Structures are given as C-alpha cells and as structure tokens.
C-alpha cells in the first residue's frame, strides 16, 4: 500500500479525560511503524507529515514502546466539564489501562 492508502487506515480514539487534560490515541497501520521516530516525541509538523489529522493543540506526549504504532496525545481540556461523557471521564491510571486493553 502507498502512503495515501495507509493514511485511510489510521484509527482515532474517542477523547478521554483526567482533571487537567483530554487524551486520545491514534493507531497507525503497522506498516507505518518504521516512520515513527524512536528517539524523540514528534512535533506537530512530524505527526501531520505522517498523515495524522486532528485539530491544533494536541501534543505527542508519550512513546508506548511495546507498540510504537500507537501514538499518545494530550492537550489541556477545551470542553467544559458539563459536556463530558461520564464514560470518558475517569482517573488517568484506570483510563490508560482501559485504553491499552481496548485499542488493539
């Protein structure tokens, strides 16, 4: 598959929250793993260059070494708390565990 075809298979999670940030993970097709830097977190220009499409303000904040094709993003909460989906608002540790169990 060429890069354009691979980009059509990028998976974007729903957002999930803690008290300070909203989070999401993006799962790249495994064929794109070789394009993900191993030495540093990506800048917005780098992840957009891979074909990741999301609104401004998201920061690639962690490398999930066992599965480098899963990109973890966060940004300060932009949605007022009254609009949170109760299922997506949880303490971060339990949310991370839930995400890693359900994402792949």
UniProtKB/TrEMBL annotation:
<dbReference type="InterPro" id="IPR000789">
    <property type="entry name" value="Cyclin-dep_kinase_reg-sub"/>
</dbReference>
<dbReference type="Pfam" id="PF01111">
    <property type="entry name" value="CKS"/>
</dbReference>
<comment type="function">
    <text>Binds to the catalytic subunit of the cyclin dependent kinases and is essential for their biological function.</text>
</comment>
<keyword id="KW-0131">Cell cycle</keyword>
<dbReference type="InterPro" id="IPR036858">
    <property type="entry name" value="Cyclin-dep_kinase_reg-sub_sf"/>
</dbReference>
<keyword id="KW-0132">Cell division</keyword>
<dbReference type="GO" id="GO:0016538">
    <property type="term" value="F:cyclin-dependent protein serine/threonine kinase regulator activity"/>
</dbReference>
<comment type="similarity">
    <text>Belongs to the CKS family.</text>
</comment>
<protein>
    <recommendedName>
        <fullName>Cyclin-dependent kinases regulatory subunit</fullName>
    </recommendedName>
</protein>
<dbReference type="GO" id="GO:0051301">
    <property type="term" value="P:cell division"/>
</dbReference>
């Amino acid at each position: 598959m060429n890069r354009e075809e691979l980009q059509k298979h990028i998976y974007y999670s729903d957002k999930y929250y803690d008290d300070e940030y909203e989070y999401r993970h993006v799962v790249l097709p495994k064929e794109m793993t070789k394009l993900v830097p191993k030495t540093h977190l990506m800048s917005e220009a780098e992840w957009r260059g891979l074909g990741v499409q999301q609104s401004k303000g998201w920061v690639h904040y962690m490398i999930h070494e066992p599965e480098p094709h899963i990109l973890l993003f966060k940004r300060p909460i932009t949605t007022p708390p009254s609009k949170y989906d109760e299922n997506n608002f949880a303490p971060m540790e339990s949310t991370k565990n839930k995400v890693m169990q359900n994402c792949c």
